[in-house]
Design goal:
475 residues; alpha+beta; Immunoglobulin-like; 3 domains; 8-stranded mixed sheet; disordered N terminus
Length: 475
Amino acid sequence: MSSSGQGIPGLPDLTHPIELVQFGTQAFKASLLLVFLVVALGVAIALISFSLRRSQSEQLIFIGEWAVRYSQLLRGLQHLTLVLVLLIPGFFLCSTLSNRYHHWEQARVAQVAQTVAGEKLEQFAPQVRYSIQEPYSYTTQINGKIVNVNQTREITRFLMLAGSQIQVKLDQSVDVPGRSSIYQANYTADYKVVNQLKDINSFFFEAPPPNGYTLLESYKIERDGTRLQPTNAGNYSFPFRLQPGEETTFRVTYQAQGGPRWVYSATGQLLSNFRLTAIANFAPADFASGIVPNEIKVDGRSTQFTWKFDDNVSVKNPFGVFTNTEPIRHTGVIPRLLLLAPAIFLWWILLLYLSLPMSFKNIAIAASIFFACLLMLTYLARVINAQLAWTLISIILLFLTWGLGASRSASLAAIICTIAGAVLPVFGLLVPFSGLTLSLAGLLSAIWLAVRHWYGWYSLHPEDQRLQTQKNAKD
């Protein structure tokens, strides 16, 4: 399996049963250790109380102080245990979503890469081949003597095309199982050949079909209106004679299917009197390989690209048309956010604890809402912009957070904690200026806590405090 299919290496995933068993075993051992420490502390207090049984006054003072502290410790451990119980499954949920989103992003990148740099219909420029006899000499040894031998050998040469007038019409089909898209190409090209040699009149016109096709129809080659027949099946080399100074025209036509690009390769030849018109009957279409067309015309969903080269132009890369796709930007943003989400959750819960009396039920409901919002963000960000998705989700989060308070003042305090501890940190990890946004969220949190506890500018009134305590007791 590829690394993209496995997700982020080393990250726990709820869809991997072996990892679940391993982490469950570790969590069970940690829970047993915590229980052992609490029991050991209670036993230690009991032993000290037993040792002070003869001094009733000291025993009463010691037992009273430590009983209160032990009770406070147990209440604190209850809250800590609840937060850990919520945090650990939340971490596994976020890590799983991070893996899934990473896999989805890599699949999108691979799909776009396939359309840009994968399969293609590539049409090669035809070649006009001829042979000449070239003298050469070499030395050899005969009967102990060095002898100079003069012979001739056949050398293959190529005649440059005098002109190329090409038109290709491209239609796209996207409803193909297992393929991003395929092209239907209707190709017509007229090639002009002029014999500029003095003593050569025998040539071969070599015009292979396009490379990468899945279906090729009506492939034919005509010379001055007369169709040429290949001498052997699969051999696209056609002999012809052309006297010095004469010219002739070859027409190449075909219909082909292949995907999902169409490019023209000059095969290292110099292009002279060249004109290529590619008509893409789909949108969005763009030119490939960075060879800018001389003319681009857009008519509805049809785009016409025209390349013109007048005299001896060398084009190294194949050029043509491909289906333009929106660039995939900001990959890895959502996976990074999901990995940091448990820390954001702790930040938010800490602000709530330091600002409001919190009950077990309120903490559990708040955690459920927070991780549900992250789950919604993960899937909503696949169809719309992530910043817009979080803005919409934040409105829902703030509306639900209002219910944490038993009074208007307490509800406003919960809203401020949610903005500083949840909304801004998550939004900061979605925008390019993450450091600045997170710094503003941290500064807002610190200012809120200072105003709330040091200066008493936004302290809950006794009546609000009583209502909040009653609400927590009722919950």
